[in-house]
Amino acid sequence: MAKQPAQFEVQPVLGLYNSGKLAEAEVAAKKLISHYPETFILYQVLGLAQDGLNKFDEAVDSYQKALALQPNTPDLHFNLGIALTNVGRQEEAVKSYAQAIKLRPTFFEAYANLGTILQKQGKLEEAIKNYQHALSIHEDPRGHFNLGTALRDEGKLDEAITHFKQAIAMFPNYADAHNYLGECYRDQGNMEDAVKKYFDTLALNKNHPGANYNMGEFLYLAGRYDEAVGYLERSKLDDWQERALYCTYKAEHFDAFKTKLENIVQTGAKHNAPFLQTLSTHYATNFGVEDTYNFCKNGFDFVYQKSIPELAEPDSQFLKDLLRDIDNTAIEVRAQAMIINGKQSAGNLFKRPEASFRKLGEIIKQEFLNYKNKFAGADCELIKSFPNELEFTSSWYVRLRRGGFVDRHIHEVGWISGAVYLVLPKDKKDPDEGCFEYGLHGDNYPLQHENFPTGIARPKVGDVVMFPSSLFHRTIPFTGNEERICIAFDLKPEGEIFRRSNY
To answer: How many other C-beta atoms lie within 10 A of the C-beta of residue 381?
Structure first.
């Protein structure tokens, strides 16, 4: 057996760690390890110290060395899972949490963390099962909150609300739970209760990023632009800068808008913002000046349409599967003011467990690669900064009936947006009825003239249409009695996304 240090040698290292002197503990542990290279407790403390110092790669190495000496230590597998998650090694983290659970079946924290990874991977059903298992072992506010977020992602708003309420009942000062509860109310169209929850959140934390952002969004949708700006600026979240600029423009403070836009462009701090391109292009077209922003000045040139053979083929089984799952799956409706005579699903469709939705998501990801290749070499940031890894910010179905349409809008949280067409009206008085129109104006932006160009895509069943998220778009109303069904989506660079369902 390898020589082990005496207790009096180890105790100072533990003392440094326990007193929060992490850097000193790291140095002391390494020094002692040089003399006793097979001492479990030293690698354990070293890993914990490195973890606390955000040296996650080094912590992974230390935890692994500790586990090589004592592999049946569930807490260490758990800690290793956290460190692996922090360095982006999610699949390995999943194995670590699974091993912690195997060694300690009542390890509810491991179930919860495993659920979090699975949720980020879009495996909502598995995430929900792990969250539920964690709660069955130990009921706590965080567990209910986690479960609520996954249920919301799955489009089960009522169930999500129940769990956010339970989290709040157990911990009334749970600011995030209040905010997410408000977002669920918003998705259901209950803005009165949504705003109450945002205010509840801000009463607990006046600087809460999400609640400030949500209040800013509510106020500018209500046309209270000047009030909205302060909330957006306090949020410092996601696209707050573009949304504040939007408020300035909608309030027709054109000189202030011009100055703020020029400052953003000149600093070059934001070169990859589709929403900023929308604003810049509209202002330039409106006032007949140069468009100085170059995310995608000429969005019309980047509209992409292609048939998906497996959907377009006669008597397509894949198409039947998609329509069956749309009809039969318990997905709640999200309130959406821009939709007339129709409805759209809540949650993120491509993260649901149904095989048809999953399959379509994978096909669309491949089409994004085709999109990138088609426009390779284009002199704009849409293509030059095209992300290597993309994720679905949102995906949803839209069902329209006679007289239905979706009004002009943009997708603020996308990079590339699009839709796959499953059912299209055939009985038309005009050939453009039910078609997809894109352009440079919408959302009641202030107009100095009416000369804003538009283009039309005329999709067939099985087609996918993709376009820069900076373009306004709408569905042209149709008069026939058939339904119009499509699945729409946004993709943006992979990473943490606060606005999971802003569409």
So the answer is: 18
CA distances from 164 to 139, 152, 186, 256 (A): 13, 10, 14, 41
In this structure, what CATH number is given to the domain that contains residue 75?
A: 1.25.40.10
Residue 503 has pLDDT above 60, yes or no: no
How many Å apart are CA 426 and CA 477, to the nearest integer? 13
Same domain, 324 and 464: yes
Interatomic CA distance for residues 71 and 76, integer angstroms: 9
List residues bridging with 307 in a β-sheet.
Answer: 463
Task: Report the distance separating Cα 17 and Cα 110, nearest Å.
Answer: 24
SS3 per residue for 439-473: ECCCCCCCCCCCCCCEEEECCCCCEEEEEECCCEE
Contact in structure between 486 and 398 (CB atoms under 8 Å): yes
Nearest to residue 94, comparing CAs of 79, 108, 114?
Answer: 114
Positive/negative CA dihedral, 325, 328, 332, 334:
positive
pTM of this structure: 0.82
Q: How far is CA 492 from CA 26, 122, 272, 395, in A?
A: 39, 15, 11, 12
Q: Note whether 406 and 339 are within 8 A (CB).
A: yes
Position 458 confidence tier, pLDDT thresholds 50, 70, 90: very high
Q: Give the integer Cα–Cα distance in Å for 93 and 86.
A: 9
| Mean pLDDT, rounded, for 377-389 | 86
Span 289-316, average pLDDT: 95
Q: Roughly how many angstroms between the first and final C-alpha of the chain, as a whole number?
A: 62
Q: Which pLDDT band holds residue 400 (cuts at 50, 70, 90)?
A: very high
Separation between Cα atoms, residue 205 and residue 401, nearest integer Å: 44
State the total domains in the chain: 2
Contacts of 90 (CB under 8 A, 6+ apart): 84, 117, 120, 121
What residue has token string 């100095």? Answer: 448
Q: Is residue 282 part of a domain?
A: no
Domain assignment of residue 101, given as a range: 7-171
110-149 per-position pLDDT tens digit: 999 999 999 988 889 999 999 999 999 999 999 999 999 9
DSSP letter (8 states) at residue 409: B
- Ranges of H-type helices in 309-410: 309-312, 317-328, 355-374, 381-384
Q: Is residue 498 part of a domain?
A: no
Q: Is residue 195 part of a domain?
A: no
∠ Cα 204 208 211 (to 5°): 95
